[in-house]
Design a protein that fits this description.
Layout (H helix, E strand, L loop, with lengths): L2 H18 L1 E2 L9 H7 L10 E2 L2 E2 L5 H18 L3 E3 L5 H8 L17 H11 L3 E5 L9 H10 L3 E5 L4 H5 L12 E5 L10 E5 L19 H13 L5 H14 L2 H23 L3 E2 L8 E5 L7 H10 L2 E2 L1 E3 L13 E5 L1 H5 L4 H16 L4 H15 L8
Parallel strand pairs: 1-11, 5-6, 6-7
Antiparallel strand pairs: 2-3, 4-8, 7-8, 9-10, 10-13, 12-13
Helix pairs in contact: 2-9, 3-9, 4-8, 5-6, 10-13
Bound molecules: pyridoxal-5'-phosphate (PLP).
């Protein structure tokens, strides 16, 4: 078999895997056929180091137009004055902005952020930068409070909204845009775009580090971010992915995306309530967004074992540390569930009861191979009539 055929056979196999299972990884989603088409287009052939109108290569007129559309759509979607759509990933978007992060956590009793404690840490550590962001926090964030804390110690404030950006774009959660110096996000989670990153500035400002043009004029923050992305962190931009980002931002500006993201939140709320009914311990007792983190210690199963058993039943989710976890990151006491992907497949709040029933059966019977096989068949049957993407 040729190498190419092998790869395409595996792509078919992966498509089948995605179709037959229940996808609860909070960072994943299913993109529209248009977004996938742009990713697999001729744009992948184009080198375009630099920025629209200022490229290091010829023949960039068309990709310039595409990149400008993506930039404009991102600015409208988030109400920001500046957008850089080139970061190849969320990590690279962050790398371009990082100076020196400080660490804080949630409260042991409530699972919530305590802004007084964050303030105390900031006073003690005097960080250059504070990052407001999380991968497994199911509550809304007070970015205004974060800005007050940052200003009180002269720190730069970065919000990483990789997870909730789709909900923030449609006004379902607080926006960091008016409060944070710079905002980063991935484009492939709740935003439902191609795999990639995005950097935003609500209102551009003179950089606080005293970096000047030759003329003596202070550079704007957006000038520094552009330089940090290219050439600081990356070479040629992925123009096919930027084209797909432009399409995804356009999709997210439509009312149908508001219906979608509203349903993501309703589904997460319903799933967390069903889990509570079955005795599961949700960190912070519920969710305001698209995900939830479950402490499995009262169920006598580790995150690692729960993840493994769920995957065998074609329910994909990931193990996750819980606050003050006594187990290693490779074992963990928790598991994280998210509803962005199953909502794209058209599942509604009433379906969450069924999903939680399936999850609970797996966790109760995690050592029973026969039972897990039966649940897998039920999962496959439940998802068989649902396409990956419902507009
Ligand atoms: C909050 C947050 N920021 C950044 C990232 C990294 O994004 P990427 O995988 O695109 O580098 C993640 C990944 O899940 C994330 O949860």
């Amino acid at each position: 078999m040729s190498n190419t055929k092998k790869i395409f056979d595996l792509i078919k196999k992966e498509e089948q895997r995605q179709l037959s299972g229940i996808e609860l990884i909070a960072s994943e989603n299913f993109t529209s056929p248009d977004v996938m088409s742009a990713c697999g287009s001729v744009l992948t052939n184009k080198y375009a180091e630099g920025y629209p109108g200022k490229r290091y290569y010829g023949g960039c007129e068309v990709v310039d137009e595409i990149e400008n559309i993506a930039i404009e759509k991102a600015k409208v979607l988030f109400g920001a004055e500046y957008a850089n759509v080139q970061p190849h990933s969320g990590s690279q978007a962050n790398q371009a902005v990082f100076l020196a992060p400080s660490f804080y956590g949630v409260e042991k009793e409530t699972g919530l952020l305590n802004y007084d404690k964050i303030n105390d840490i900031a006073k003690k550590e005097q960080p250059n930068m504070i990052i407001a962001g999380a991968s497994a926090y199911s509550r809304d964030m007070d970015f205004k409070k974060f800005r007050e804390i940052a200003d009180s110690v002269g720190a730069f404030l970065l919000a990483d909204i990789s997870h909730p950006s789709g909900l923030i774009a449609k006004g379902l959660l607080n926006s960091p845009i008016p409060h944070c110096h710079v905002v980063t996000t991935t484009t492939h989670k709740t935003l439902r775009g191609p795999r990639g990153g995005l950097i935003l500035i609500g209102k551009d400002f003179e950089n606080p580090f005293g970096i000047k043009f030759k003329s003596g004029k202070l550079k704007m923050m957006s000038n520094l971010v552009d330089l940090a992305v290219f050439p600081g962190n990356q070479g040629g931009p992925l123009e096919h992915i930027i084209g797909a980002k432009g399409i995804a931002f356009g999709e997210a500006l439509q009312d149908s995306f508001l219906n979608y993201i509203n349903q993501v939140k309703i589904n997460a709320d319903s799933m967390s309530k069903e889990l509570v009914k079955r005795g599961y311990n949700i960190i912070s007792n519920g969710t305001d967004n698209h995900m939830m983190l479950i402490d499995l210690r009262n169920k006598n199963i580790t995150g690692k074992d729960a993840e493994k058993a769920l995957v065998l039943a074609d329910i994909t989710a990931n193990k996750n540390m819980v606050p003050f976890d006594d187990k290693s990151p490779f074992v963990t006491s928790g598991i994280r569930f998210g509803t962005p992907a199953i909502t794209t497949r058209g599942l509604k709040e009433k379906d969450m009861e069924k999903i939680v029933e399936l999850i609970d059966s797996v966790i109760i019977n995690y050592n029973d191979t026969e039972m897990i096989k039966k649940i897998k068949n039920e999962v496959n049957e439940f998802m068989s009539s649902r396409p990956l993407f419902i507009a």
